[in-house]
Design goal:
Layout: H1 5-38, E1 48-56, E2 71-79, E3 83-88, E4 91-94, E5 99-103, E6 108-119, E7 125-136, E8 146-150, E9 157-160, E10 169-170, H2 173-178, H3 180-183, E11 186-189, E12 194-198, E13 203-205, E14 213-215, E15 227-231, E16 235-239, E17 263-271, E18 276-282, E19 292-299
Antiparallel strand pairs: 1-2, 2-5, 3-4, 3-6, 6-7, 8-11, 8-19, 9-10, 9-19, 11-12, 12-15, 13-14, 15-16, 16-17, 17-18, 18-19
């Protein structure tokens, strides 16, 4: 039986459709196979062979706890590690390279618990800890003691992406006027090592209010709790529930007014001749670790 042209055309069309269908199925199976292969992972292994080397600056046989500067150098290493962080008495610092230099702040000979954490694939971690004793010997100039207040001038408050760069926000004359309740607050360093926040009936509130405003101080940031401080050549450490310098919300791990261990560490410069105390603090911005707040103080007494 002979087929007409129309029948041949129908057969060709059906064959082409079937070939295309089978080809599409084969192609889909190929990609599924590839996808399955791409999503096969090997074992995720935590870092191993973690090592921690601590150098106390100035340490020798006669001075095993250092030269009094309080400076130490930390070096961590591990197999299968991508990054590192260090913890000193519970205060953590990120050190991607595994190396960090820092200055300890407790005066006299003090013990510190130091932990190095190696970070590996998938966020796995391994750690090692040591305990060290370090000597810090520093006495500030007598003019350091007493009551300080924020300088009532433009630029006395600022924040930015790095120390020395306060381009995100800086106080101007209008801020000084609007926040007079902040610029009259006292920050008092007593010679016996105690510290006081004295804010009077009104201070500047930013947390827990509908909008920033001058209002009565709110516990624990109202100076009602006992507090202490320690000071080295480069750092001031404030210890105590609710105790702070400058703005109560800012601390070394955030801007929520709740520092770890009720301890805040500030860098400072004391200009004896000009009677100023310049403070910087970092660590509060996890997205920009180098970000810094700046406070300029003058003596109030």
């Amino acid at each position: 039986m002979l087929l007409g042209n129309l029948d041949l055309l129908k057969i060709n069309t059906i064959m082409k459709k079937n070939i295309f269908k089978y080809f599409s199925i084969a192609l889909a199976l190929f990609f599924v196979s590839c996808d399955e292969e791409n999503y096969e992972f090997g074992d995720i292994l935590a870092p191993s062979n973690v090592a921690l080397n601590i150098t106390i600056v100035g340490a020798d046989d006669d001075n095993p706890t250092g030269d009094g500067s309080g400076k130490i150098m930390l070096e961590a290493s591990a197999s299968n590690a991508f990054s590192y962080k260090f913890s000193i008495d519970g205060i953590e610092s990120i050190a991607p390279s595994g190396m960090m230099e820092t200055t300890l702040t407790k005066t006299g000979v003090e013990k510190y618990a130091v932990t190095a954490v190696a970070i590996g694939p998938g966020g796995t971690t391994s750690s090692i800890s040591q305990q060290i004793e370090v000597f810090v010997d520093f006495q500030p100039d007598p003019s350091f003691f007493g009551a300080w207040k924020l300088a009532p001038e433009p630029g006395a408050l600022g924040v930015g992406p790095a120390v020395g760069n306060y381009s995100w926000w800086s106080s101007d004359a209008a801020v000084v006027a609007d926040r007079a309740c902040l610029f009259d607050d006292l920050f008092i360093f007593n010679e016996d090592g105690t510290f006081q926040n004295v804010m009077g009936d009104s201070t500047w509130l930013e947390l827990g209010v509908a909008a920033p405003t001058c209002a009565a101080p709110v516990a624990p940031h109202d100076g009602s709790n006992p507090a202490t401080f320690s000071v080295t050549k480069d750092f001031i450490v404030i210890n105590g529930l609710g105790a702070f310098l400058g703005l109560y919300k800012v601390h070394n791990t955030g801007e929520d007014g709740v520092p770890i261990g009720n301890t805040i560490t500030y860098n400072y410069t004391h200009d004896i001749d000009n009677g100023t105390l310049e403070i910087t603090i970092t660590g509060f911005n996890t997205g920009v670790p180098e970000a810094a707040w700046y406070y300029k103080f003058i003596k109030a007494d």
